[in-house]
Structure formats: C-alpha cells, structure tokens
Amino acid sequence: MSQELLIVTNNPGKMREYRALLSSLPVPIRFPSDLGYRIDVQETGTTYTENATLKARAGVEVSGLLSLADDSGLEVDALGGEPGVRSARYIPGSDADRIAALLARLDGVPWEQRTARFRCCIVIMTPQRELYIAEGTCEGIIATAPAGTGGFGYDPVFYLPEFRCTMAQLPSEVKNRISHRARAVEAALPILRRLLEDADQRG
Question: Per residue in 163-202, pLDDT tens?
Fold first, then answer.
C-alpha cells in the first residue's frame, strides 16, 4: 500500500475541512485533483453508507490508494427526515437555492418543531477492498433565515443552541471540533492509523 491517503471529493468545502481534520496523520493527504484524476460518482445509493462506499471504491479503482469517502446530509424531523441522502440534490441550483426551498417547506413550523441533525458516514476502503465505516452526527435546529458566511451547504440555517449561532457563524476551528464530519473523522482516525501502521509493517 502506498503511504498516501486519497480523500474522494471534489467539493472545495470538504477538501478544506479534511485537510484540517486529518492533519495529525503521518502521511500525505491527497485529493483526486492533486493526482490529475476526475472521479465523478453517481450517488445512486439509498443510504449514506451505500453512497460513500461507491465513492471510496471508485477511489481505490482509479488510484490503487487507501481511499476515504463520505456521504452526509441534513435530516429535518418536521419533514420526516428529509432531505437526507438527497441533501445535495434537494433541488437543482446553488446552496442558496436549496436553503430557500427548505425554509419555504418549513414556513409556519414553530421553533420547537424545527429540530434537525447533520449526519455523516465515512467509508474507508483499502486496496485489498477491505471496508471500514465510521459515523458522526450533530444536533441542531433549522433557523428561520440564513446567517453567517462560513462553511457551506446548509450551514447558514443550522442553528446550534449551545453556541447561540448557526454553523456558518462558527470559527472553523470550532466547527472542526463539533460538526458531524468532525465526529465521523474522530471515529475514523483510529482505523486509519491502524491500517497505515499495518501497511508499514508489511513494508
């Protein structure tokens, strides 16, 4: 196993977060664009795990490297868990368009019923096609209007009561401690360290 870790994403926001979240690993963190690859995977799975597995497998097949991919989404209780796995494809257009559509569907829903969570599933796949899964969640409330310029996706309307602000208003170092992706990475790091150590021992 080459001592590099491929993170299978083309999303600049995710790339920025993964560089920070995985900085403690003793190997280079690579993205498809770093290696001259374009990995576009149709997210046809019905669960976060299925979609993340599709992406991680594509990373291994293209690069031969230990590969990590995630799928994440926003689950709004008042909408029966939607948009869920369709969060990034909720409606065509930009993040702002998707936020507007979400707020329109929640129009008139009282504050105490606007509970929601971000969920992230990470799949790690080795070149030998061994598969490992780690998950993380972050609970919050859907705000009535966007606030903040940080983060990406639905961050401007994901209100965190304990911080009294939206995810998009948090400093990046705080977000990278409490977000769903941060918690999934926290669960994934021991797995990654063990796999890299095993690869070292195999020489």
Answer: 999 999 999 999 999 999 999 999 999 999 999 988 777 7
The b/e string for 149-186 (b: 16+ C-beta within 10 A; e otherwise) is: ebbebbbbbbbbeeeeebbbbbeeebbbeebbbbbbbe
d(CA 133, CA 131): 7
pLDDT tens digits along 77-97 = 999 999 999 999 999 999 999
Give me the residue label for tokens 């257009």. 93
Strands 66-76 and 5-7: parallel
Give the SS3 label for residue 106. coil
71 is catalytic: yes
Catalytic residue among 71, 77, 97, 155: 71
pTM, entire model: 0.92
Is residue 26 classed exposed, middle or buried when 0-12, 13-18 and 19+ CB atoms within 10 A define those classes? Answer: exposed
Q: What domains sit in the chain, N to C, each tagged with a CATH number? A: 5-202 (3.90.950.10)
Task: Report yes or no: 38 and 63 within 8 Å, Cβ to Cβ.
Answer: no
